[in-house]
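Example complex used in Figure S2.
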Amino acid sequence: MGFVADTGPGVIRVAMVDDHALVAMAVRGLVESDPSLEFVGHAETVAELFQRVGPADLVILDLRLRDGSEPAANVERLRRWGARVLVLTSGEDPYLIREVSRTDVLGIVRKSAPPAAMLAAISAAAAGDSIATTEWAAALDSDPSIESAPLTDREREVLTLYASGLGAKQVATRLGISENTIDDHLRRIRAVYHSVHRPANTKVELYQRGVEDGFLPGPTSG
Amino acid sequence: MNAAGRSELHMRRALLAALAAFGLVGLILTQTVVGRLAPISLPDWYWLVFNLSFLAPVVAAVIAAFVEVRWVRRLAGAAFFGVVVALALLLVVAIVDPGLEGQVPWLISAAGAAAGSAVIAWGMRAAWLGLGVITAMNWSITALVGDLTPHRVSNDIQALLFAVVTILLIGALVRGAHDIDRVTATSVRAAERRAAAQARRAAAERARTIVHDDVLGTLLQAARGSPELDRALAAPAAAAAARVRALAEPEATGAVPLTELRRHLAELARREVPGARVIERIGPGAPTELPVAAALAIADATRQALVNTSRHARGAAVTVALLAGRASVRVMTSDDGPGFDPALVGPDRLGISASILGRLRAVPGGTATVESAPGAGTVVTVSWQGGAEGGTAATSSVGAALAASSSGTAAAAERWALPADQLFALVLLLAAMTALAGYSSAIVDERWVPATAIVLVFAGLAVLGWLPLQRPSLPRALAAVVAAVLAASLVAAGDIADYRLMTGWYATAAAFVMMVLALRSRPFLSFLGTAAAIAVAGTASAVRGASLVDIVSVLFRPALIGIGVTLIVVLLAALARRVRRMNRAEVEAASAEAWREAEQAERQERWAGLDDLVGPMLDRLAVGRPLNAAERQECAILEGALRDRYRGARLAREPLVSAARRARARGVDVVLLDDAAAEHIEEGELGAIAHWMAALLDEVGGGTFTGRILPADRRGRASATSGEDATLFRGEEAFTRMTGGS
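Predicted assembly (964 residues):
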């Protein structure tokens, strides 16, 4: 975490970047309904957030801003700034969701999701947990480039079930495995998806990537 | 005029005119020189028929310039029958009058022109048949009038040779023109499809931006809002309504705005190579818009470059730079990947040749280059310069035009017919020349002369090779010219008393070598070579004491073949260039038209519908009066319906649209996803999916419902999930429960 909390202990500061002031007002209402969260401000662009709003532990970022900025670049700037990022989407563009899924975001949530689901996602993100949503899973599951990704059959099955609209509990029941195992699968799916478009110019780099991502065994010591 | 059949029509007309010109030259030569040698005494009416048979093609060619291809073919057929009738009458006269003796007219040499007319009229098979008939009549007449002299036999074999080559040449040219038309028609259709698809994408993307920026957000907030928020929504709602209506305004221009191209390229880079850097430099004098064809070509070429990069230089740093300056636009796609050696990559590989270079070069003002080296990355540059005159210089070779046209996919199936004809003609030519050489050897004292001549002629042809229509290197071409000139000069090498008997075939055979050279993109060398051969052979003959009449009668045919064919080749190349320019203009016009139509269609289908769908509610929100519960629910329903249109794509159809509306009214959070957008699904199956999904959705009382068309190659076609229940659609009446409730 990039900033020392200057509010009460355990209270997490949440900021919002969205060019619709009304969306920000609605999100503010949700955030303030959770006593462990504090809404610290809203900005229309990432730059404005840095200048005007100040430190935040979690930034809720609109996927598509009117300033023409790239979603992935926005996430990277916010991560460098030290904030965790949860992305909101109107839900109509799987390309942008894929793009931002390759960055270090905790999750991608549909703006029109029921308020309870939205709040659950914000709270989970505030705690540093990743969130797997139908929109996220469907965008990855339908990405042609994932076909060549080194996913196991079980991992592909998990992704498809998520994309169908099932939640962790239903997926676990359906596959007869624990929710913890589902989380492990989701973590690896994220890692693999990051690697699908990561630069790997040489075979050595490719091997290093493989080791980093756990696809290949590392050099044994001794 | 439509592109369909344009090349073929022009080609048939031009060839008919060329044959008429040959006939006319033949007639003049007959009347002035050859016919005066020892003419057969024929009735006056026959000479009238004879002259008419030569003039008929001229009349036909003049009329052909004004009529459609069907009538051009009929006129060519009439020209063929003119020769057949003249020969038939001569045959009758020869049969009726046994005492008739002497040299038969030059009509017999006109077999070539007649056979050529037959090709234009009915095609090559009919022409071979026609040539057979003419040859049979010709030899019968020769036998009947007692003209079976060595000179006559030699002359007839040469005439046969000329006819064979004529059939082959004209057949290939007509076929090539036909192929150009087919390729053009294919290009027009492809260009229309490309333009339409791109126009739709551009229109949809613009609509999507507006929908996202204004409409979805406004509706969602209205659905979730409070009376205080409702007042704040008035201004955004009014702005959204205005933008939605502005979308429905028709666009006046068929050109593509530069801003649209910039947006499209950025989108392309984002989709094809995520992480690619996009740089834009818009300098002074940059065009505000581009012709549709240029914009399409740039966009398609850039896409191909990006696809190649992601395929061959995975993980490389990729930059797309758009540089616009004085009336020009340049897009450079570069990567620091492994690169390749362009010299080692065939023109058909990597998608470079056809997709990038070809597309751009086909556009007026368009250029494209691909630079790469192993280990040094790849730079693909595509550019367009405004105000450029129609395209790049076409090749001067008819052969290259034919080769290019026959490489078109449409022609692939029929290409096999050509080599068989060529092989047949080659065998016939070589056999005829060998026969002439053998015949000469049998009747002259200096046997080395015909032996040397045939060796030289065969050597000349061998040096050029038999790879159809390929341009020979300069040394090879020069070697062929030297061989041909030497062979022609042998006409004066033997006993001058034999001069007129048959020795002329050396010069004619040499002229065939020149003709092959002209057809292989060396018309200038062919022309010079023919002139040199005639000059050397003529001078040598004169020095040896041959008479002028003899010299002309021996050398007129090689001169006609060498120089005439060269001229035809040059004229036809110019014609091919003109037709290609016209076809390019056709492709461009078709693209522009398709763009306009598709954009209008997209606007009507999507944008106009958008206003119908959300316009009234946005107007209501713009008033700023607090919403009641029913209106708030309606906003939620509209927001969902709009989202379905974009993310649900093909699922946004009845009865699912109505079922989703009812479900949202019940408070169900409905998500529809079309995740097989690139895959074609039959309308019937889509309808079945919509019915199936609607029935399931109607049973859902609350919570979330997700309906999804699955990506290709999954176990089912679609899935429907609510609560703990997930069901898979595998086809009508066949779906499986994925989980729970079973």
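Strands of chain A lie at 12-17, 37-43, 58-62, 84-89, 107-110. The radius of gyration of chain A is 18 Å.
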